């Protein structure tokens, strides 16, 4: 059944959620379609607020920019706003909603608040879109099975390489394939740092620039140590590969870029190579088992991976029937990730958007 509006709850109101709202505002006038989306719930570290008729997104953005908080945001329907201490209390208490968007910070300890809010929402019959990787890294199978049981959808294209449709292509367009290997550069921050170090800039300066644009994780250690890349590899493996048991982050051999020096980069360049932080899922020769690694690798300068510079991200699917398919994106900010959140909502079956 097609509803009049799509009621969305945002868990986390950082850059991704804010740019999601900005995209809706940009698209409303030329596309009536986007007017159906109503953001009815928002939360950040200050608390959570709910308006069953939907917030004025511009006023919400203005308040967040001015105060850094969503709590007590001034909107058109102030008397109708309900406040809650946190996201979990809100998603348990409010009337039905259609989609929960988890854009909360990555928490690899227990996945919360995103994981618990996702479980509650699925149990209540709401679809869930993830921009936060942690819940899927920690409990992909549990969330997947619960969604099937409750007959709802979960989507997570925004968790892997921003707007690059890695999950979409792998699940939809490469259907029927066995993957011999999946290899790529999944983290724009580390790729930018290595590219800038090649040019003679310091690691610290490059990281600071990446943080300014918003492409770096809130905790840059996740980027530099290779953990963010490994998180993405886990999500890709569990959603695309034919494996009996979901892999865990602990099964990925991880080495970051902390020890890569300008001398290492110059030495590689002199021999026709460059150094990239590469994620790989590779099937052994007997086609029985995958190995998973994240590590700096020397790649030929004129290769597909070698030509990915600065904030580029890319992926290569080596398959049995489609041979090798490669994709690349250049993203200088968070807009494409927010657009991927919107893409996942628009692609959900229950809304029948045209």
What can you tell me about this protein's structure?
Keywords: Amino-acid biosynthesis, Methionine biosynthesis, NADP, Oxidoreductase, Threonine biosynthesis. This is Homoserine dehydrogenase. It catalyses: L-homoserine + NADP(+) = L-aspartate 4-semialdehyde + NADPH + H(+). By secondary structure, the protein is α/β, with parallel strands linked by helices. It has twelve helices and 13 strands. It has two domains: 175 residues, NAD(P)-binding Rossmann-like Domain (Rossmann fold); 165 residues, Dihydrodipicolinate Reductase, domain 2, CATH 3.30.360. Helix 1 packs across helix 12 and helix 5 runs parallel beside helix 10. The longest helix is centred in the middle third of the chain and has 17 residues. The mean pLDDT is 92.
Mean pLDDT: 92
Given as residue ranges, the uncertain stretches (5+ residues, pLDDT < 50) are none
Which class best fits the helix and strand makeup?
A: alpha/beta
> For this structure, what is the CATH homologous superfamily of the largest domain?
NAD(P)-binding Rossmann-like Domain
Q: Name the CATH architecture of the largest domain.
A: 3-Layer(aba) Sandwich
Helix content: 25-40%
The number of helical segments is 12
Strand order, largest beta sheet: 4-3-2-1-5-6-7
3D shape: globular
Any idea what the radius of gyration is? 21 Å
Main sheet overview: 7 strands, mixed
CATH topology of the largest domain: Rossmann fold
Q: How much of the sequence is in beta strands?
A: 15-25%
């Amino acid at each position: 059944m097609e509803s009049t509006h799509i009621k969305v709850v945002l868990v986390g109101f950082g850059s991704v959620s804010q740019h999601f709202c900005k995209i809706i505002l940009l698209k409303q006038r030329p596309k009536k379609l986007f007017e159906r989306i109503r953001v009815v719930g928002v939360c950040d570290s200050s608390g959570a607020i709910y308006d069953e008729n939907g917030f004025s997104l511009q006023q919400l953005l203005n308040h967040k920019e001015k105060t850094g908080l969503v709590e007590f945001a001034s909107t058109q329907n102030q008397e109708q706003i309900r406040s809650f201490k946190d996201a979990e209390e809100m998603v348990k208490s409010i009337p039905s909603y259609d989609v929960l968007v988890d854009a909360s910070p990555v928490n690899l300890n227990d996945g919360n608040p995103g994981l618990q809010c996702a479980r509650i929402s699925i149990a209540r019959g709401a679809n869930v879109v993830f921009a936060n990787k942690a819940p899927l890294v920690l409990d992909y199978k549990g969330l997947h099975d619960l969604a099937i049981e409750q007959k709802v959808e979960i989507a997570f294209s925004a968790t892997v390489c921003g707007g690059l449709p890695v999950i979409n292509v792998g699940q939809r367009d490469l259907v029927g394939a066995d993957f011999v290997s999946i290899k790529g550069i999944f983290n724009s921050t580390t790729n930018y740092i290595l590219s800038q170090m090649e040019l003679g800039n310091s690691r610290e300066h490059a990281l600071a620039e990446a943080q300014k644009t918003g492409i770096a994780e809130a905790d840059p250690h996740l980027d530099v140590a290779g953990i963010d890349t490994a998180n993405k590899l886990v999500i890709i493996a569990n959603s695309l590969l034919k494996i009996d048991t979901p892999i865990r982050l602990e099964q990925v051999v991880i080495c970051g870029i902390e020890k890569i020096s300008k001398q290492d980069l110059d030495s590689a360049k002199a021999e026709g190579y460059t150094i990239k932080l590469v994620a790989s899922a590779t099937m052994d020769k007997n086609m029985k088992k995958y190995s998973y690694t994240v590590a700096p690798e020397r790649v030929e300068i004129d290769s597909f991976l070698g030509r990915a510079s600065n904030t580029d991200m890319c992926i290569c699917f080596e398959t049995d029937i489609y041979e090798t398919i490669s994709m690349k994106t250049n993203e200088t900010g968070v807009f494409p990730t927010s657009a991927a959140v919107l893409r996942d909502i628009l692609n959900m079956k229950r809304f029948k958007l045209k």
